[in-house]
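Instructor's aside before we start: the two examples that follow are unrelated to each other. I chose them only because their records fit on one page, so don't look for a connection. First example below.
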Amino acid sequence: MSGIYARLNKPAHTDEAAAANRARCKNCGAGLLGRYCVDCSQAANVHVPTTSELFHELLEGVLHTDSRLWRTLSSLWFSPGRLTREFVAGRRAAYLPPFRLYLVVSVLFFLLASWSHVPADISRPEHGAAPSMPTLSQCNSISIEALAHYPGVDARIRHGCREVVRDNGASLARVALGTFSKAMFIFLPLVAVVNMLLYWRPRYRYAEHLLFFVHLHAFYFSMAILALGAIAIAHAWPAAAGAADTLQTLLGWAATCYTVLAVRQVFAKSWTGAVLKTLVLAFIYLLVFALTVAGVYAYALLQL
């Protein structure tokens, strides 16, 4: 009885002192009552991990059979349009967020492209005739009438031209490659607007069209990564050049068929409607893409 009486008559300031001395979450500062924070769910035992712990966490996250990464990539590669439909339907927990997926795949592509032979000397292509390169005298005589009132821009163009001549375009290709990754954040919304104009009945929200192209370009970039691998193998092993060319052709056809299947799955069109809409979209897509590439190279020329 004395123990019960003591607990009932324990001063309130004792509980307050215990609460004040309670361990707090290092992430949000909330008091910890167990192994995890009840406010932000971070683990209570937070410490600087060892190298072996980091490696174990990496293997667990990448190789675990239930990993969202592999489930997302499997749906992206083998089920055209499924990721977009699942996201719109609200079934999102099992997959990586669309923009995170796009960023991971696109960053990997541009990183590999910067290491590969893609931004190579543009004056000595491996197939076909070399494009005619300007001479230094031609660069020095460049004068664009429309830029007569902006002599600074004219001078930068002439300087960029001389740099292209100096290193046969290697620096131009390198700057353009870095700029293109940023230009895609303008290109994707523009193409989504164009695609939205193709669908009036039934009408889809702009966000659905944007999500569709985010997932579609994540697939395109993943195919481009395989193409870069084929190019690298062809450079390291010339005997495999024929197989590499065949693989690149197959990847191009795979991207075309994938686009038709994805249009049909996401926008619920018949096969005829899906093919026709894809053809119209492909024409507009290539036009906008060509303008984007021209803008990227023009910007890159001014940065040299």
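Example two begins here.
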Amino acid sequence: MKQTKRFFGLIAAALLATSTWAQMTFTYSAQATESELADGSKLVQLASGTDLNEGFITGATVGGQAVDLSDINPNPATTFITDGEIETFVYGGKAYSFRFTTTQWFTAVIFADPEINMSGDDRPTNVSTTTTMTTWMNSIINMAESGKYAFDNYPIIPSPDLVICAGDMDEDDGDCKDISSMFNLLTAQGIPFITMFGNHDIKIAEHNSGTMLASASSTSHNLTSLNCIDGYKTTAQSNGIENLQNFTQTNGEFQMKPFTFTFKGVRFYIGQNYWFQTPYDYTLASVLGNCSLDACYPANDIISSLTTFVGEHKSEPSVWVQHYPINCADRWWLDQDGSGNSQAITGTDNHPTVTDRKNKYMDLITQTKNPYHFSGHNHVQAINNHTYNDVTFKDHVAPYFAAGGHAWMVLCNSKDGVVEVKSVTFNE
């Protein structure tokens, strides 16, 4: 596990030499975890709900020797403690600095479109191979030790507490083989890792003569991708994510299964390709050779259950991730090919137009606390502002990971959710 490499902090300060600070140690009445911060102070992470002004410090040692709390100035047992701010204690003419917090802090790395081994004239910048990808994955794993990464507003040594891939995992027909070996480098270190469908990972999102491709071979490809995604969800639960819930509906044998989970108090909503992707009946599709009127269904139940879920979890800071950016070309929101052909569906689609879909999606996003959105697909980094329900939020479109390990480094805490987003490159 990489827990010993996780560092958190709030405000930079220059007080005394680091060597003098690390010699004082406290004991606590509540569960506590201590970490050294980049500015030399010591972070004390206490359980949520701990009262910082009720004598939670019960003892102290300096240089390994027990000392009376009343001999420390100010007395740690009676001092008013402000969550997250530096508290300086003096003993024997030396100062020791601490930050006490009940807020959980973590760094997420979000990238999109690794597209390993995908080539072609439309991808001249793709240099993603098993060799280059191994370098990039190891750079993520070792980001804390490298000293190359830092947030602008917080003195934190970033580490990969959570890693998310926003789709388009490998080449067409790659079936996740090569990319899984790369993702496994992360999970082998105990890092919670999440991935999802992109349009190249699910063939029902590609078209042929106006019908959705859903032959027996493409169904096999889709199931392989889904199993890959589900496998990483299972592993991530062992590595730290919590409260995982999939969204499905009764019609359609093949479900895209968008999902949600929490990590250190922050709610993540994972839309897969996007929240409106159609489930389909792969038995009928295989027989018919395409996703015809008899095989595809609107995602009404998924959107309805998501609406209910959001209404019950509005107080949780939120991060939304799907493959498509909110402002990407309209045809992607309608599953159309370049000629404007769409798949036929069984039943009434409650959100049939691009405007319907985007507005419903933004309505849900803006009902949650401090929402941030992340996406990929476009292969060009961008930050787009969107406003709905008088709430403005940002969609951070990820740079093209396949062009050199480009990604977003995201600082979060359990109180506010996302507090800083920074563009980084993991290419060495």
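The CA atoms of residues 135 and 428 lie 6 Å apart.
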